[in-house]
Design a protein that fits this description.
Elements lengths: L46 H11 L2 H4 L6 H7 L14 E9 L5 E4 L5 H10 L3 E3 L11 E11 L8 E6 L4 E4 L13 E9 L2 H4 L2 H4 L3 E6 L3 H5 L10 E3 L2 E4 L1
Length: 244
């Protein structure tokens, strides 16, 4: 097992982009910068930003009685990173898995496969909180990992790539019904993720670190029948990324 990397200081963007566009919110680009902490009508703030500030300011709505440690709080208060594009192109994409004596398989993390993927993560040591279903028991996986698709901004040195996390370092929290009665905004925390594509492996300031990722599911994913945990905003530091 590789040694745990230290948390090295990193340079971030100074804040959120000056404009956002979200299909459900119907919010057009504005010339003036909009602060995430603005007192503007919440309906005019993209869901990804609202979701992040909700879990940052009221984490107990997701964590309930479970422990919120310093590392969780550091992730929830992380700052925007400069090398990732804030778009739907960054999201929890798929699970690679293989049982002993069998071939590698891929399961895309879509709306239709949501329960299957959560159950698979749980069977490999991940923790689910607030869900009515549980896995039938531990499964002996020869290999299993959750792949997070990340999109690079222009000049980042990469177009897209994967970061990978292992299930026993993943927790998934059912979202509070106040976020959406039918499809609550679930949260997933993946700890110690590493780069998993050749292009990212060649970028030292990314590949030399391990990353904690917060992914949050927006309810419109169900309407679009697309991959979960998209409509992405990314905030990061070494060991700190968040996706919504």
């Amino acid at each position: 097992m590789a040694a745990q990397l230290p948390q090295v200081p990193f340079t971030f963007d100074s804040g959120f982009p000056k404009s956002f566009k979200n299909d459900d919110d119907d919010w057009e680009d504005e010339e003036d910068e909009v602060s995430p902490s603005s007192t503007a009508n919440p309906c005019c703030i993209p869901k990804n930003i609202r979701a992040y500030h909700m879990i940052r300011d009221n984490p107990e709505m997701w964590f309930g009685d479970t422990v919120i440690d310093d590392r969780d709080r550091a992730l929830l208060s992380a700052e925007p990173v400069s090398f990732l594009e804030l778009s739907q192109s960054s999201y929890v994409r798929k699970i690679y898995h293989m049982k002993a004596g069998e071939q590698f398989e891929t399961t895309e993390w879509t709306v239709e496969k949501d329960i299957e993927c959560k159950t698979m993560v749980s069977s490999a040591g991940g923790n689910l909180y607030g869900y009515p279903f549980t896995h039938a028991g531990a499964v002996h996986w020869a290999s299993i990992s959750v792949q997070v698709n990340i999109q690079g901004v222009h000049g980042a040195g990469f177009n897209w790539g994967f970061m990978a996390g292992v299930p026993d370092k993943i927790r998934i929290f059912k979202g509070p019904t106040s976020t959406c009665p039918k499809h609550p905004w679930d949260a997933m925390i993946l700890r110690d993720c590493t780069t998993n594509t050749f292009n990212l492996n060649g970028i030292k300031h990314i590949a030399s670190r391990k990353w904690d990722i917060l992914a949050m599911k927006m309810c419109e994913d169900y309407d679009r029948k697309c991959s979960l945990y998209s409509d992405t905003a990314v905030i990061t530091r070494p060991r700190g990324v968040w996706f919504t």
